[in-house]
Amino acid sequence: MRLAVLLSGRGSNFAAVHDAIVHGDLDAEIVCVLANRANAAGIERARILGLPGHVVDHRAFASREGHEAEVLRILEEARPDFIALAGYMRLLSPAFIAAYPMRIVNIHPSLLPAFPGVDAQAQAIAYGVKISGCTVHFVDENLDAGPIIVQRAVPVSNDDDATSLSARILNEEHIAYVEALKKLSKSRYRIDGRRVVFS
Ligand code: GRF
Questions:
Q1: Residues sharing a CB contact under 8 Å with residue 63, sequence separation 6 or more, in sequence order
Q2: What's the number of domains the chain is made of?
Q3: Ligand 1 test: best mutation among 107, 164, 166, most atoms within 8 Å of CB?
Q4: What is the pTM of this model?
Q5: Domain coverage including residue 116
Q6: Which residue, judged by its Cα, is nearest atom 6 of ligand 1?
Q7: What's the rounded Cα separation, in Å, for the pair 31 and 64?
Q8: Alpha carbon of 125 to ligand 1 centroid (Å)
Q9: CATH of the domain at 42
């Protein structure tokens, strides 16, 4: 499995996926790590690991299309089977998504369809749910809405705040992302409406 990773920040999910590859838990090769911010810690980590890293700063482009065209050009060269969004804080246009149909995956820190969008953990705290978690899903043209591949749940306790809940969910994210990529690389599956059916 040739994997491209797109990120904007810390890159702990990227690191978890890379660790799984190094330890032989995931049969994949990271062929491209791309950030839209030069100061993303994840891109620095990619460089330290000797992985092909690219910065395409969206602020250097007049339009979303211009930025995406450059990202797509780099991806085309890298020839990924799947593109993993790992804290990539840019909305992808329908044209971008259409270039890789059901080959772009994302991780979101809630049990979708609850709490899409930003600050999902704070949304969960404010709502008062007793269980939250994370979701790895295919990316379609709607925000945090594509077919679900893997979910993992965590309890929410009375004294949690967004910070403590985020940390608990993040632990599960690292497991969930590897599990989802493993399933995509090893199993047969079909997408039946909203359902990802593994066989
Ligand atoms: C994670 O919480 C992920 O669910 C969300 O952005 C965060 C990225 O964290 N989409 P990291 O950069 O992988 O550490």
A1: none
A2: 2
A3: 107
A4: 0.97
A5: 107-199
A6: 87
A7: 24
A8: 18
A9: 3.40.50.170
Spatial distance between the Cα atoms of 58 and 156, rounded to a whole number of angstroms: 36
CA end-to-end span of the chain, whole Å? Answer: 19
- Look-up: residue for tokens 């994210």? 173
Query: 165-190: per-residue pLDDT in tens?
Result: 999 999 999 999 999 999 999 989 99
Ligand 1 neighbours by CB, cut-off 6 Å: 7, 9-13, 42, 86-87, 107-109, 170, 173
Question: Which of 100, 129, 158 is the endpoint of a domain?
Answer: 100
Beta bridge partners of 155: 131
Kindly give, in sequence order, each residue whose CB lies less than 8 Å from that of residue 163, ignoring residues fewer than 6 positions away: none
pLDDT in tens, 63-87: 999 999 999 999 999 999 999 999 9
**108 among known catalytic residues:** yes
Ligand 1: centre distance to CA 181 (Å):
16
Find the angle CA(127)-CA(116)-CA(182) to the nearest 5 degrees: 120
What 8-state DSSP symbol labels residue 128? T
